[in-house]
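User: Run a structure prediction on this.
Assistant: Running it now.
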Amino acid sequence: MVIFKWIKMSLFLTVLLFTAAVNGEISYTVRVGDEVTLSCENVIEGQDKCDRTTWMLGGSKNSVTLFEHGQIHKDAASQSDRLSVTENCSLVIKKVTVEDVGHYGCRQFNRSGRQQGPDAHVFLFVVSMTEQKNRDQVTLNCSVRTYDHCRHTVKWLYEGKDLDKDLKTSQSGCSANVTITTSRLITNHNLFKCNVTDKYTGNMQLFTFSLQSSDDKTDHFVLNNILLAVRVALLVLPLIVITVLQVRARGNQRPPAENMDLNSVRTEQRSGPAEGGLGK
C-alpha cells in the first residue's frame, strides 16, 4: 500500500513537472517583505512603456487586472505604491505580503488590439516566519503561502543541519514548527534556517530566521518615546501651570505687617520736610 502511494505521488509530480515545462510556467518563492520581479517571457518588442502588455492576478475567472495600457490599473490602485513595471515589462512587487500570493498572467497584444500568443504564467509563493512566545520558550513557525495546494516541503535547520532530536518539532503540509528556549533564540537566532523546496522544480531555498528588523525596532522605539513624552507632558503640564499661578499670586499679595511698615516709611518721608519748613 505504501509503495502504491509512493508510485502514485511520483507519477503525479512527473505530470506536474511536464505540464509546467510545456506551458513555460515560472515560479518564485520569496519571503514576506522582500521585493520580487516577475518576468514576462512573451514580451513583444517595440512597445511604448509596455502599452501593449497586461498583467493580471488570478485565473481566467475572477482575475484582477494590475497593469494595462502602460499604467497601473484602477483595480490595483490600493497597491500602486508597491507595483511597477520595468522596461522589459516585468512586474515588480515591493514589500511582498501574503496577499500577493497567486497565479499571475502576462498577456501581449498587437497594434490592432488583438491578443498575440498565449499568456505567460507566473506563480508567486510567499514564505512567512513568525514566533510565538510562551514564558521561557518560543515556537518558530515557517510556512509557505500558496494560492492552491501545497507544492513545497518545509523544515527547520540549525547551522545548516537537521535539528537535534531533543528539540520539539512538528510539520504539517507547507508548515514547520520548532520550539526552543528564548535565551537560545536571542543568542543564536541567525543559525536557524527554514529549508523550502519546490517539489515541482526541485529548487531549494534557505530563509534565515531573524528577529524583528532594525527598522521596525527603530520605528517602534521612536513611537514609544514620543508617546511616553506626550504622557509625561500631560501629567506635568498642569502641575507647572498651577505652580506658576501660585507663585504669581504670592508675589501680588504682601503680608499686612509689611504693608504697614511701608506705609509708615512713606508717611515719615512725606511729613519730615513739612515740619522742617514750619520750624524755620
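Residues 1-23, 213-224, 274-280 have pLDDT under 50 and may be disordered.
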